Amino acid sequence: MARTALITGITGQDGAYLAEYLVKQGYVVHGIKRRSSSFNTDRIDHLYQDPHTENRNLILHYGDMTDSLNLTRIIADVRPDEIYNLAAQSHVKVSFDTPEYTANVDGLGALRILEAVRMLGRVSKTRVYQASTSELYGLVQEVPQNEKTPFYPRSPYAVAKLYAYWIAVNYREAYGMHVSNGILFNHESPVRGETFVTRKITRAVSKIVLSNQRELYLGNLSAKRDWGHAKDYVRAMHLILQQDKPSDYVIATGVTTSVREFVRLAFAAVGVEVSFRGEGLEEEAVVTAVDKEVFCRKVSSEAYDKFVKRVGEKVVGVDSNYFRPTEVDLLIGDPAKSQTVLGWKPEYDLHALVEDMMSGDIKLMKKEDYLLKGGHRVLNYFE
Ligand code: NAP
Ligand code: F7E
What we know:
By secondary structure, this protein is α/β, with parallel strands linked by helices. 39% of the residues lie in helices and 17% in strands. The longest helix is centred in the C-terminal third of the chain and has 23 residues, at 350-372.
């Protein structure tokens, strides 16, 4: 019998990669999708099966993390072997604007899932993965951060996720439930949400080199993050639920990089050298050189002729609107436990991640350009 997984947040970055991975492993995957005025299934369209198809391995259900009746009914109907609770209002800056909603979805949402499993008598039948986060470390108390590092959350998002982390631990200890926290450090991909900093950078750099945008504005360029690839991180989620005993795991690369350096790497991926000058709100990046061979190969020779005229010009500036009321300055994870216990190792390093994101966005921006000029092709991120 195929195993059954239920993924909340299946339309998000991780939900899409996880669904693809589990379908390949032979699972029947159920996903919860909230109602929206547009389809919002771009990331999983390549997996979608018409409801009239027999023996489907991807089935979507309408639902919402704020609706416990709905979540309970879905869990009762699906009777999953594994639940991956990935749904969240996941943007840290937005959580300062929507703190109550974030607490409801990210904090109480986790409780609703756990309590539904318990009420339905599925404690020994359903394993639960809770999407915890390196944001829990916030104002870091130790460098690097491991499973024993004390938490110090710095945003409504992180505080909501702190509740979810501890309610998961509590259900494990109180009821013997197989529930585990994956404390995942930042992970990105070509389908990362467009307003997270890495994707904001790779999209903008792609538009800038295609001469469709002049400048990119960012917030704190000095923030440092431990960035990995989502494709590697969903493998870790699955491994965590395959362990005999539930536990909590840090998933990270062990390498940290500043936002400023990520910008430099994104331009470098298409043969453009930029250098930073000035400080604080006056800091900016200017183009210092263009490698013709790399640029023509990665972008196009047509675009080269236009872009090369921008040597010496500003392409990146700072806008204080992107600063956060309380910032997380430095994150770097210690993945020793996940490497030894789970045998997990990432395949992508930062350079491979930047390459993947830049080639995805160059392709996408060329298509958007084509659409703007009257083409009618449907954009599909996974093409
Ligand atoms: P994401 O791309 O923002 O996806 C979030 C998913 O949650 C989307 O499918 C979204 O639906 C859904 N969602 C939001 N509010 C909902 C609600 N009220 N009811 C039902 N579904 C709702 O996030 P991600 O990067 O894939 O991250 C997955 C999980 O891991 C999140 O819990 C995040 O907080 C956590 N996490 C992420 C990272 C990271 O670096 N990516 C690191 C650590 C932890 P829509 O598509 O309709 O918006
Ligand atoms: O910011 C700085 C910003 O929004 C990273 C979520 O997936 O990972 C993510 O949270 C850093 C911060 O991710 C801009 O101030 C500078 O220091 O890409 P981000 P995040 O806040 O680390 C964790 C692990 C999660 O759990 C979350 O769900 O970059 N930064 N300039 C900027 N950030 C953004 N978004 N936009 C800027 O213009």
